[in-house]
């Protein structure tokens, strides 16, 4: 597979130093000093446990999941007035989808970390074709918006759009009733009832070396960091690099079974351990 940084040479290539055995402990002994866990985890607040909130819980529900059964694939409606700000229920990356069918301006907040179900799923057949998916919820969908904030990452509580009455393309900003429609989606794009995941708390994967000298942090939203003493957080360039650093940690956990890395991988590792994103 071709990565933006290029594929590493084959481990079978013995030219120069392209094939070497590297023990993680010896590398850390040369590059890092002792560290207290709090010193590393302190700067990682953006990746701490987060609870999925419902910013609209103060409004009555004017259209429940079951109410949508006859005409929709599912959702919840709230009677928000025109141009009411829409806070992000959790941290995530906003993607504007444009005008979608009768849903008007639609955007999806792709959550940094999936959230598990809190309440049982509905058994109601939606629009005669499908039931609510199991989850977990990975995205929150907003429809009928008057306007949408620019694509990008937003923290929990940040404004991601404004409620409205947009509906089918061509019907204009007031093509439907003024309200907010919201629903969730699972990893396959199937709809889930957003309200039944509210209150779920989750946190990203955090892996540490056996001696506590290095922490590897990855969010399912596609961002990750290597935490190093004296160097803070170093951004991880790709999932390929994340898996490489996991191999480094795994070699530390398995004494007497050193991992094999090729020259390109060793260069990447050395760069990260020096606090530089390759």
Automatic annotation (TrEMBL):
Gene3D superfamilies: Glucose Permease (Domain IIA) (2.70.70.10)
Listed name of the protein: Uncharacterized protein
């Amino acid at each position: 597979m071709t990565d933006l940084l290029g594929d590493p040479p084959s481990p079978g290539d013995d030219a120069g130093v392209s094939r070497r055995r590297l023990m993680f402990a010896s590398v850390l002994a040369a590059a890092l000093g002792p560290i207290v866990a709090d010193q590393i985890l302190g700067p990682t607040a953006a990746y701490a446990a987060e609870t999925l909130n419902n910013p609209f819980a103060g409004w009555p529900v004017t259209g429940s999941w079951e109410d949508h059964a006859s005409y929709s694939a599912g959702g919840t409606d709230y009677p928000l007035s025109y141009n009411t700000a829409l806070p992000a229920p959790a941290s995530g990356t906003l993607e504007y989808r444009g005008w979608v069918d009768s849903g008007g301006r639609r955007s999806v907040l792709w959550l940094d970390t999936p959230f598990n179900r809190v309440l049982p799923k509905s058994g109601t057949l939606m629009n005669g074709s499908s039931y609510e998916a199991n989850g977990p919820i990975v995205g929150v969908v907003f429809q009928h918006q008057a306007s949408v904030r620019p694509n990008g990452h937003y923290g929990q509580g940040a404004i991601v759009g404004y409620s409205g009455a947009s509906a089918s393309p061509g019907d204009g900003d007031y093509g439907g009733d003024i309200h907010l429609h919201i629903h969730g989606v699972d990893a396959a794009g199937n709809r889930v009832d957003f309200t039944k995941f509210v209150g779920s708390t989750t946190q990203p994967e955090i892996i540490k070396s056996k001696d506590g000298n290095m922490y590897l942090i990855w969010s399912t939203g596609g961002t990750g960091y290597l935490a190093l003493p004296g160097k803070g957080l170093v951004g991880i360039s790709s999932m390929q690099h994340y898996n490489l650093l996991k191999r480094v940690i795994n070699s530390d956990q398995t004494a007497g079974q050193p991992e094999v890395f090729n020259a390109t991988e060793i260069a990447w590792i050395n760069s990260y351990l020096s606090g530089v994103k390759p």
